[in-house]
Amino acid sequence: MHINPSVGKPAQQRTGNRALTAGLLSIIPGLGQLYNRRWIKGILFLSVAAVFAATLLVPLINGFIGLITLGDTPDVDDSQALLVEGILSVLVTAIAALFYAVNIADARKDAQLHQDGFRIPSIRESFHNSYDRGFPYFVVVPTFVMLTMIVIFPLVFMICLAFTNYNLYNSPPAHLLDWVGLLNFKALFTEAVWTKSLFSVLSWTVIWTLVATTLQIALALFLAVMVNDRRVRFKRVIRTVFILPWAVPSFMTVLVFAAMFNDTFGAINRDIFSHLGGFIPWLTDPFWARVAIIFIQVWLGFPYVFTLFTGVLQSISKDWYEAADVDGGSRWDKFRSITFPHLMYATAPLLIMQYSYNFNNFNIIYLFNKGGPPVPGQNSGATDILISWVYSLTFNENNYKMAAVISIIMGLLVAIFAFYQFRRTRSFKEEGMY
């Protein structure tokens, strides 16, 4: 007499066995779906896997080999091309691994539905259900794939360069690149020239970011509060004039200021300080060059912040100020307890982005004096910030390895600072409360 081995076993155990079988068969994509009698889906998974194995398996293996070795024969193997192909192989493999995981999960899910007695939806029903539940993913995934190739791929390539010996004297394809581990990072913090340049540029970058951004915010706050005063007339005209520096392209403004600050023929020295019997070396003295750049950034940056503050000030209810008047509050009390908290709460994320933007504000540094004047014993200029120093190392000295190392440090600093500041803002803390 034949006895069904599944009789008497718990349904959960039988379900688990069927799901396990489907998962094991899905080691070859599509077989698990065929086991579940999902013929169309199984054929699709199997076809995609077969096409992938036939067309991409060998190139991916070669890509991984090239990524490890970076070439064997100079003038024949291009280490840079092999590095690119290797990174692409890693990204494609990650996508294939995701497809493989989806294939196994899909087979196990259908097996459990079948064993539990539920009807397995058709291909059309599955598509409609997935579209209804996962519409945001259908919209986000194409953009995510594009960002992966446009943003993540160059970022990974740059990170890889930081661990190679890629510079002017070792450029492929005439030479082969080698993986050097953390030697570039060690050189940055141990060799005198690099250490002096790094700490000089890093300290000036921090000073530049804090001073220039804080001054432009303070100036914008002062002007916005003054113009918003009910005693001021012609508010529209005044606000229009204050916004004009923002309307003019910034590169034109910087070039005009570079000519005005010129040591010899600049209008500031010739028409102002010459009558006072003075002369200021705006472009040749490190201190005065930094003062000039901070002044230009305040001029360029305050109109945007002024516009933000003006919009918030107009949205604050007048009833609060009237209540403060009834309680006998002074102008300072009203500013401290009503105006300033509302301004900071509404604009804090944007103000933080102003600090992050100025940390990487390449245009003003390069257009004003290209990071000069030069400093003895350094391979960076007196007004170079990290981003302009990276540009100089990349395009002027072709020192790609050290430029990549500094870029990694710069990215970490910006990310840590922005994340820390966002976490401290009230708008971030209260985001999940509603």
TrEMBL record:
UniProt keyword NADP present: no
Keyword Transport appears in the UniProt entry: yes
Keywords from the UniProt entry: Cell membrane, Membrane, Sugar transport, Transmembrane, Transmembrane helix, Transport
Top-level taxonomic group: Bacteria
UniProt topology in membrane: Multi-pass membrane protein
InterPro entries: MetI-like, MetI-like_sf
Compartments where located: Cell membrane
Pfam families tied to this protein: BPD_transp_1
GO cellular component terms attached to this protein's record: maltose transport complex
Transmembrane domains' residue ranges: 43-70, 82-102, 137-164, 201-225, 237-261, 287-309, 338-357, 402-420
Any GO BP: maltodextrin transmembrane transport
Domain ABC transmembrane type-1: 202-421
GO molecular function: ABC-type maltose transporter activity
Family from the record: Belongs to the binding-protein-dependent transport system permease family. MalFG subfamily.
Reported function: Part of the ABC transporter complex MalEFGK involved in maltose/maltodextrin import. Probably responsible for the translocation of the substrate across the membrane.
Protein name: Maltose/maltodextrin transport system permease protein
Species for this entry: Paenibacillus swuensis
